[in-house]
């Protein structure tokens, strides 16, 4: 099993290029099968989740051509199989987007119940409510969701909870339903807007993405397009908190600063200097940082996907910080690991109280999920000793060349697999 080994205690300094947004790209790839024409998608992150989804799309008969690591063409004309059994697909969350896409285009879809990070119970009732409202019959049997419709007809849908997945999924189906769909209480995340823009570039008629109400006038057919995925605000934020925690000076390149507002506000609150450019943000962290309070919320609130990264940073800030996790009930597991590195934390229900410490000590820790894994690497980079992070397969789901990008900022981090490699690293770093 691959691990990261880290020798920390050095400020991260320099520039890092941010890739395309995983969570936008996954939905866009699924939506690409909704036309028989060829779609070209650029700025894809080269991460495991994307590769699993591309294999699944090829597996049902679409033609998938990799132009390079970040560009792909997809042609859905050959799709002959509307049932996705593929073993890996159920492990990724975004497998549910094939349901919305296939239901919209073929009026029939069967997809294994989705997986994704184990950060809470993660129901999909709002997705199913939306499909049913549009006229689909939906059943769950043998771990599979089966959706079928003779005809899909636009409806007024009010979501009971704000869900990124349900908003995008039902939007995809409604894009090819008859008539007008009005979706209320929808998610406003940048990736919701990106998927709407992508579908519109294929000929869909979607208005209001990025606000609380999305209106979709269904169209009969979608057509070819060329599209570039937006930058990943979570990858960018991860490097920004890595700069803060290591008392570094890092500029994230190829970002949309507007998408990073909640992150920038928290970095400034704890005492970092943040400079915004057209498509870059520089974070400078000098001297003592101070505590703050964080509550995760749907966009434009502070993202739950950035909660572990700020948590690790706050554990090294002076004073008492609190974090309220209001989206997922099981996203504090990384704090147990951090406690093994010397953090002073207490979790009660959906709140964590963090008493800042001056430094951590290196330890062997496990990545409990994707963002938590990245956050534990930040902890290791901020720690003078040696830290080993196990289960990095989670990190590889969503970060491209993570260790290489950190090394580019002066971080001492290597991917290792054997005890011999660990010893070699220790000898090298002294
Ligand atoms: C692949 C992907 O894009 N994953 C992201 C997506 O996950 P995901 O789409 O699973 O998250 P949602 O936005 O749907 O979940 C938000 C909240 O709504 C609840 N809920 C959701 C759907 C539903 O049918 N019923 C229901 O009750 C969830 O339990 C959660 O409490 O958005 C999350 C919130 O920004 C991010 O953390 C994930 O990284
Ligand atoms: C939780 C995440 O992903 P997923 O929803 O795919 O588990 C994430 O991207 O942080």
Automatic annotation (TrEMBL):
<keyword id="KW-0670">Pyruvate</keyword>
<protein>
    <recommendedName>
        <fullName>UDP-N-acetylglucosamine 1-carboxyvinyltransferase</fullName>
        <ecNumber>2.5.1.7</ecNumber>
    </recommendedName>
</protein>
<feature type="binding site">
    <location>
        <position position="327"/>
    </location>
    <ligand>
        <name>UDP-N-acetyl-alpha-D-glucosamine</name>
    </ligand>
</feature>
<feature type="binding site">
    <location>
        <begin position="22"/>
        <end position="23"/>
    </location>
    <ligand>
        <name>phosphoenolpyruvate</name>
    </ligand>
</feature>
<feature type="binding site">
    <location>
        <begin position="122"/>
        <end position="126"/>
    </location>
    <ligand>
        <name>UDP-N-acetyl-alpha-D-glucosamine</name>
    </ligand>
</feature>
<dbReference type="InterPro" id="IPR013792">
    <property type="entry name" value="RNA3'P_cycl/enolpyr_Trfase_a/b"/>
</dbReference>
<keyword id="KW-0132">Cell division</keyword>
<dbReference type="InterPro" id="IPR050068">
    <property type="entry name" value="MurA_subfamily"/>
</dbReference>
<dbReference type="InterPro" id="IPR036968">
    <property type="entry name" value="Enolpyruvate_Tfrase_sf"/>
</dbReference>
<comment type="function">
    <text>Cell wall formation. Adds enolpyruvyl to UDP-N-acetylglucosamine.</text>
</comment>
<dbReference type="InterPro" id="IPR001986">
    <property type="entry name" value="Enolpyruvate_Tfrase_dom"/>
</dbReference>
<keyword id="KW-0133">Cell shape</keyword>
<keyword id="KW-0961">Cell wall biogenesis/degradation</keyword>
<keyword id="KW-0131">Cell cycle</keyword>
<feature type="active site" description="Proton donor">
    <location>
        <position position="117"/>
    </location>
</feature>
<feature type="binding site">
    <location>
        <position position="305"/>
    </location>
    <ligand>
        <name>UDP-N-acetyl-alpha-D-glucosamine</name>
    </ligand>
</feature>
<feature type="binding site">
    <location>
        <position position="93"/>
    </location>
    <ligand>
        <name>UDP-N-acetyl-alpha-D-glucosamine</name>
    </ligand>
</feature>
<keyword id="KW-0573">Peptidoglycan synthesis</keyword>
<keyword id="KW-0808">Transferase</keyword>
<dbReference type="Pfam" id="PF00275">
    <property type="entry name" value="EPSP_synthase"/>
</dbReference>
<comment type="pathway">
    <text>Cell wall biogenesis; peptidoglycan biosynthesis.</text>
</comment>
<comment type="similarity">
    <text>Belongs to the EPSP synthase family. MurA subfamily.</text>
</comment>
<feature type="modified residue" description="2-(S-cysteinyl)pyruvic acid O-phosphothioketal">
    <location>
        <position position="117"/>
    </location>
</feature>
<feature type="domain" description="Enolpyruvate transferase">
    <location>
        <begin position="7"/>
        <end position="406"/>
    </location>
</feature>
<keyword id="KW-0963">Cytoplasm</keyword>
<dbReference type="GO" id="GO:0008760">
    <property type="term" value="F:UDP-N-acetylglucosamine 1-carboxyvinyltransferase activity"/>
</dbReference>
<dbReference type="InterPro" id="IPR005750">
    <property type="entry name" value="UDP_GlcNAc_COvinyl_MurA"/>
</dbReference>
